[in-house]
Amino acid sequence: MFNILNILNILNIPKIRRILLTIFTFSSLFKTVDAADCLLVMPLFPLTYNGIVTPYRLQSVNPADPCTMENPMTAAFVEATMFDPDTGRISVYHPLVVTDGKMPLIPATPFTMPVNAVVSLSFGSNANTLRLTPPDIALTGRCVNGITGNNDLFGQFAYCNSDMFFDKVNAWMASGMALIPPIPPLGLANDGKECLTTRHFMLVDQDPSDNLVTTYLLDPVTMKIFQDTVSNRVTHPGFTIIKNGSDNRLLVAINIAMGCTGYLAPLLSDPSGAKSASLILNELHAAMRQMTPMVSLPARDPMTRVLVNGLPVPSLLKNNLYRRGINQPQLMSLQHADTLPFCGHLTNQLGRIQDNKAVFTTQTSPDVNAATNLFTFLATRFFQTYNNLKCDILLDTVNPVTLVTSNGITTDATFAVVQPYQFSSQDPYSPIPSPTIPPTSPPTPTQPVLPTDPPPTAPPLPSYTLGGNIVYIVFGSLFLIICVIGVVWCIRRNSIKKEAEIKNPILSIEDPRERFLIADSGNSGHSGHSGHSGNSGSNFNTNFNNKTYSKVYSSPRSAPRF
């Protein structure tokens, strides 16, 4: 497509270019990815004001598979969400991305950045993979692109400093303070049930919480990118909107259809006073308001697997790294991200999709090249997710959705009757207790609410069987008998020793280092006090109290004097 657009640009045929761009833009919304692997060159100090207003540059890993912003299938997107720890205010900004070697049509919008702002950067892509570069700048921005050093990327998603952002915001709310704007309640949808979030099983697919709501404008005449603002749309009509297909953009479409509103904050890149959602805001909203069951990354999420001998294998490390960037709890093991109950919850939401068919069929499809309306889009999305996660194998149930297609586009869908999935073990997507809802009123000068430790639980008393008690009694009795025999023997031995000492007093004089033998002087081979040096078994004699003692040494050294 890129080569065709270049030719059309040279021939100066903007109308045809505009038509082609519109077609390819729609095709990018259903997460149909290009085979290209892309590089995103980061500006210096990306978490600062200058870093935010400086355009990122999109490059190609392989020149044969070019990555450009003019091609919606390889476009990349950046989203900055800022938290002011002095006031609790949250705001959003959409930094620019341009094709390497090009300039934006209009410079990035200047804005006022809070002095102590905590910045989170989120990245999305319509290509196969997106790698942040250069590594030293990514390091200064505390960026996470996958498993560092393993050349193992998430894929279309990356983040910078998001874990720090969530830590600060969560601590702020835990202290009893509310955000500005406050996190709104979910409210009720047109069907009388709670509105959706990015952690609702009716919305998600096999890789939840990826990609952004950021949009850019492309001028078909100059083929340059500029920020999507009210004034830019007025001054440069004929633009093409470049979008990032995602759960987050789908939530916008479903909210419109079901009469719901998400969590919005001031969009500082649009001076008209517009408000916008962001991946970060959606995660905050979902974490605070979504009741169970609540979506979290499953073990078989394609973006959290690693290749082992050429096969994709779930990775605990990669899953936890991803979770840090979207405010989800860390896992102790992948059992807490079991894909089987994830599939069960997906299936349990089919009824609500079918119940809202009349409403969804009146809404435009997020991807006209995949489905004819919002209902057929959701049906197609479920069908693909069910297959990609191997839910048919895990649940031992064929895909309950049957698609009706025409020229590769879903025109209708039928749902088989499926019994609600029953969870036989602990459900990792239904935590106990359910998430607590923080205050939504403006902050008041109250004392921080400290968490209360749960009361200690007494350890269970050990239980024994009758056989076990008999064994303990037998062994205990034997041990007691042995101890009694030992004590009696020691007493008897000491008694015999004392009787011997009375008969031979010299036996009470002992050198603990030597061995003494009592002998008659006539049996001795030496006499007097002379020392003797000889081999083992040598001896010398000495007189003491008219007795002769022979001292035997077992070493060849010189015998010491006594």
Provide structural commentary.
Residues 521-541 have a biased composition (Low complexity). This protein is an alpha+beta fold and 562 residues long. It has four domains: 2-329, no CATH class; 339-427, no CATH class; 464-504; 510-562, no CATH class. It contains 15 helices and 23 strands. The protein has helices spanning 2-11, 14-27, 49-53, 135-140, 162-174, 230-235, 247-258, 279-289, 316-324, 339-348, 350-355, 357-360, 374-388, 391-394, 466-503; strands at 37-41, 56-60, 76-83, 90-93, 97-99, 118-125, 129-133, 143-144, 146-147, 152-153, 158-160, 216-219, 224-227, 240-242, 265-266, 275-276, 305-308, 311-314, 401-406, 409-415, 516-518, 539-544, 547-552. A hairpin with a 2-residue loop joins strand 19 and strand 20 (409-415). The N and C termini lie far apart (108 Å).
